[in-house]
Amino acid sequence: MGLKNMEVTLVKNLGSIIGFAIAGIFVMSVWGAFVEAYGIFGGWFAGLMIISIMWFMNHFLGLVANEGAFVDMAAGIGICGTMRDVFLQGPQAGINSLPTLAFVIIGAIIGGMAAVAVEKVWAERDAAKTKDISM
Amino acid sequence: MAFPKIIATMAGGFIFPFLLRLLWGNLCDNFGPIGGWLAGGFIVGTTWTLNHGVGLIYQSGEAWIDMAWAAFAGLFVASAISGDDVGKGVGMIINAILGGVLGGFILYCLYV
Lengths: 135, 112
Description:
The structure holds two protein chains of two kinds.
Chain A: H1 3-27, H2 30-60, H3 74-89, H4 91-96, H5 98-134
Chain B: H1 3-31, H2 33-53, H3 68-81, H4 86-111
Helix pairs in contact in B: 1-2, 1-3
C-alpha cells in the first residue's frame, strides 16, 4: 500500500469518526432543547433540521465512507446518547438501560428483515409490471 | 421491565428501520437529494414523535436509549442479508463506536 492509499484510508476513517461524532453531538443536545422549548413539535422539527443536513453530509456526500454492509450515522447517534449519560451518571446507569437496548435491537432486527422481505416482493411486482408494458 | 413495555419497546424498534429501509431510498429516487430532507422530517421526525414524543420506547434505565440504536441495528442487518460485505461493515462499526464515545464525552463536558 502506497503512501497515497494510506492517506486516503486514514482520511476515510477519521472522516467517518468525525461524521458519527458530529451527528451524535447535534442530536443528543440540540434535539432535547427543541423539545423543552416547543414540546412534541420541537422534536419533530429537530428531526427535519438536524437529520436532513447530517444525512446530506454523512451519507449523500459520503463523509461516513461506507463500503460494506451499511452502517447508518444513527450508530454514532445512539452510542453518543447512551455514552453521554454513562459519562454523566456512571456505568450503573448504562447497565440499568440494557433491557431497553436489548428489546429495541431485537425489534430492529425483525424490522430490518421484514423490510427486505417487502422489498423483494415489491421488486418482483415492479419487474412483472415492466414486462407487461414491454409486451 | 413489564411485559407490555417490552412489546411497546420492540414495536418501536421494529417500526423505525422498517420505514427507513423502505421509504428513504424511494424518496431520494423520486425527489433527488431533497428526498433526503423530506425523509429527515417525515420519517425521522414523525417516528420520533411516536417513539420518544409519546414514549413507545420505554426507558428502563437512566442512560438514554435512542431509536437511533434501532436504525443502526435494523439497517445493518437488512444490508447484510441483502449481500453486502459484513467484514467491511464491522470496520465502520468500530469508527461509529469511536465517534459515538467521542461525541458522548464532548457532551459530558457540556453538561457536567
